[in-house]
Design goal:
- The protein contains 10 helices and no strands.
- By secondary structure, the chain is an all-alpha fold.
């Protein structure tokens, strides 16, 4: 029962934060949306900020799972680049409310309480990508660069389209640019002589 109430409050928090933002959201509005009592809210979370941090970690976990699923079964270099970019774009579009929360609404000032847990989740994502990437770098299939640089070249350009989509500045589905984003990432991440000519 407690897990169900907690999940209901997280889902309600996501809806309320998406509708009015973190600052304007109230515990009362979240409780009403979740059909939870004041006692139930404060049994599950000490504050709106604590709920926001827990929600951030939950959404981040879902995003990372979607990204890592793209690497199973283990792809070659170009397949992996393709799958990772498409996984990012698909998750943003199909989980738009969660993506808005993760990339547009969440704020570092209330995330300090979950920073260690966030680092641990990010480390698991990085390790999963590195397990796929490191052998390809060693074999000359991917250019050598730091993991941070690799991810920035892989996802950074796609994220620009996604942020415009999430903020409403551009209503175009970012997946419509997938082929171009993938082609650019391949050129940025693979040695020129290893790029498949099709």
């Amino acid at each position: 029962m407690a897990a169900s109430v907690r999940d209901d409050l997280l889902a309600a928090g996501l809806l309320v934060f998406d509708r009015v933002g973190f600052e304007a959201a109230t515990v009362a509005a979240i409780r009403t949306r979740a059909r939870a009592s004041n006692g139930s809210f404060f049994h599950a979370f000490g504050s709106k900020k604590e709920l926001a941090g827990a929600l951030f970690l939950e959404v981040l976990r879902h995003y990372h799972a979607a990204v890592l699923a793209a690497l199973d079964p283990v792809p070659d270099a170009e397949q992996g680049i393709d799958r990772l970019i498409r996984a990012h774009l698909d998750w943003v579009v199909t989980s738009r409310r969660e993506a808005r929360y993760l990339f547009e609404i969440s704020r570092s000032e209330w995330g300090e309480d979950v920073r260690d847990a966030q680092r641990a989740q990010n480390a698991r994502l990085a390790e999963g990508i590195e397990r796929w990437r490191a052998p390809l770098v060693a074999g000359g299939e991917l250019l050598p660069m730091t993991p941070v640089m690799f991810v920035s070249q892989l996802i950074g350009p796609a994220q620009i389209f996604c942020r415009a989509f999430l903020s409403g500045r551009d209503r175009t589905d970012p997946r419509s640019e997938a082929d171009t984003l993938i082609a650019c990432a391949i050129r940025a991440l693979r040695p020129l002589d290893r790029i498949n000519k099709q």
